[in-house]
Design goal:
heterodimer; A: 140 residues; mainly alpha; 434 Repressor (Amino-terminal Domain); 6 helices; B: 166 residues; alpha+beta; 10 strands; globular
Amino acid sequence: MTKKKNKTYNSPLIDSILEDDSNSTEYDLVKNRMLLASRIKKQMSKLGLTNLDLAKELGRSPSLISKWLSGTHNFTANTLFEIQRVIKIDLINNCEEKLVKPRYELNISFSKEDETISVSPNYMTQNNLNKLPVKSRYEC
Amino acid sequence: MKCSLVKLDQLSGDMATIYSLFIEEDQTTLFENFLNENKTKYFKEVKDIVTRLKVIGNDTGAREQFFKLNEGNIGDGVCALYDTDKSNLRLYCVRFGMALVVVGGGGFKPKSIRALQDDPKLTYENLFLREFVKELMIKMKDKDIRINYSMDPEEFDGDLEFNINI
């Protein structure tokens, strides 16, 4: 076998298209669409689901499913909800990014009279708290 | 027509190697011809196609779902990068598994056509790739070309020059 070096080719035209100003955001948009489509298809394969199976489950045409999986489709949230119910993975939260628990900044004031700690309104409203009772040091 | 397989460096990455055919008499690749022919009228689509190929090379690999299969002879791997009904352009490729793609030419896809044979430009580009694959299969059978699986991702190795006649 004649061995020849693998020729690499750099096209100035491809460079000019890829270096277009808006391209980095567009690249990420395209990448995310294609990664999402890959995730869906991978999970379908895990579950042994064909495009036809998914189409039947969702009451859609097989050609629409192919389009969804092609990496060109911009999903609505509703469609993702429908799909994830069938394939049983979370697509909406796109679990590559872990959710960060919200932190609360507390304004704490201590009332000596009734020995309670008051916290900031936001925290109280979300957690249905009024006042947190604190044991008196004499009771401890 | 003398041509050679060349690796498109700007599109290839960790997930797939993207090739095109360099045409000696034109001194450009089939893919560049496609870009030049369509970038003025359909720049947005051309940009989307280039971006998708780069994502295939760098992030996802050449997953079957990103292509419309069976655009050539049975089993030869000739396919098209997925285009929707609203797309104006069709780009023919040859897919060798998840990690090797040869990007060919293509063109405007008239909405009125029902079959490939209805459009002479698309017919030509499609046939060119079919002939390329025939030649490639002969070279692989004769061990003049092989797929180097020790590379990550895979690459073609050997005599990468062809003479395509259609």
